[in-house]
Amino acid sequence: MRVSDILKLKGNTLFTVTPDTPLNEAVTTMAEHDIGSLVVMEYGDLVGMLTFREIIMVLSRNGGSVGGSTIRKVMDDHPLTCTPETDVNEVRRMMLEHHVRYLPVMESRKLMGVISFYDVAKAVVEEQGFENRMLKAYIRDWPAEDEPQQEQPAR
Predict the structure, then answer these.
(1) Domains of the chain and CATH, by start
(2) pLDDT tens for residues 59-104?
(3) CB neighbours of residue 79 within 10 Å
């Protein structure tokens, strides 16, 4: 399974912001849409990611307030990315190794979407469920043997 398969299942709703967006606006957008990240774009280029992790760090530093800061001051300005052709197992390894929950999907310099740890887990579970159903159907339809086995005499 590839990242492109996950994006097909997920749909193409994508939320982006600019680095100069006030942080409180970003928090409102994330809460209204029940999302954990925003892609930060400037002049058509990916320049960062804002996730709930960065927001929690700001809240911790500021006594529970996001203040008047902009996204530029708190975003991850070197986000890890993948491509639509990246294998899902590689994505899982990347996410675990780098402790990230959201990956922008880039094709050349074009943003194709964002996948989350949840999206990856859901896709893997669905794929395993499909494989299970296929194996069970195969076993259920196992061809009968031509000759019955003879019983062994009891000893």
Answers:
(1) 3-140 (3.10.580.10)
(2) 999 999 988 899 999 999 999 999 999 999 999 999 999 999 999 9
(3) 22
Tokens representing residue 20 in the block: 């100069």
| CA-closest candidate to residue 58, choices 36, 74, 42, 47 | 74
Q: Minimal CA–CA distance to 117: which of 74, 53, 47?
A: 53
Closest CA relative to residue 114, chosen from 2, 16, 24, 21: 16
In whole angstroms, give the CA distance from residue 113 to residue 6.
Answer: 10
Kind and range of the H or E run holding 42 = strand 37-42
The amino acid at 94 = M
Here the tokens at position 102 are 């959201």
The neighbour count for residue 147, using CB atoms within 10 Å, is 5
Q: How much is the pTM?
A: 0.78
Given a contact cutoff of 8 angstroms between Cβ atoms, the answer to whether 36 and 51 are in contact is yes
Per-position DSSP letters for 2-28, written without gaps between them: BHHHHHHHH-S---EE-TTSBHHHHHH
